Amino acid sequence: PLIFTTLTVVYLRNLEVKTPVARRVAYVLVVCSLVMSIAFAGARSVAVAQVATYATCSLIMALAVAGGRRLAQQLFASVVLGGIVGLGLIYFVDCGANSVTRIFEPSSDVSTLTRLELYARSLTLISNQPITGYGVAFESLVPDRPHQHVHNMYLSWALWGGIISLVSGIVFFSAIFWSNLGEMREANALILVLSLLGPWGVNSLFDS
Question: Which residue ranges of the chain lie beneath pLDDT 70?
């Protein structure tokens, strides 16, 4: 779903000059990306990243693209439609993701509580050895449940190699931002940056 989302956001560049058919293709891709993450992957973290990315993309279009307000409205409608279809497949069709987790029910979802526990434990460990970390193999020893990682890429980096590893990872994520810094006033450059920082950066808060 993340790769699909990245490619979809890249396709949203120059949407204002695309043909009506090409625009409809873009909106169909948005709907399909949300349906894939919500209904078939059961990946709430990806769905949150997608909504945040597409919402930001809509805002960029509305503010910085000629005729962008209408494009933003159509994109927002696609996001809403994708969410409705995805949730409908879970609750009414009983597709595969329903057996894994019910989307957006954190009170009954063990994985949410597990993540919070892993985050707290990871932060304690990081504070004890913040400079060098513990090495890559150590991360699998943190969970006491059947998880092999702490479900947060930034915490994983800090566990692996301390502050140095964390900063290096953030620089890696931000490379596309810096490479487009001179063009950041252009909407399409912002959307290109968003294609990576949006889905991957936000999802990394909840998974690794």
Answer: 42, 93-111, 137, 139-148, 176-185, 208
pTM for the predicted model, two decimal places:
0.70
Q: Is the dihedral of CA 63, 30, 9, 24 positive or negative?
A: negative
Neighbours of 7 (CB within 10 A): 12
Q: Would you call 179 helix, strand, or coil by DSSP?
A: helix
pLDDT, residue 30, reads: 94
Tell me the C-alpha distance between 45 and 3, whole Å: 14
Please state, in angstroms and rounded to a whole number, the distance separating the CA atoms of residues 97 and 101.
6
194 touches 34 (CB < 8 A): no
DSSP 51: H
Of residues 157, 170, 188, 203, the one with CA closest to residue 60: 188
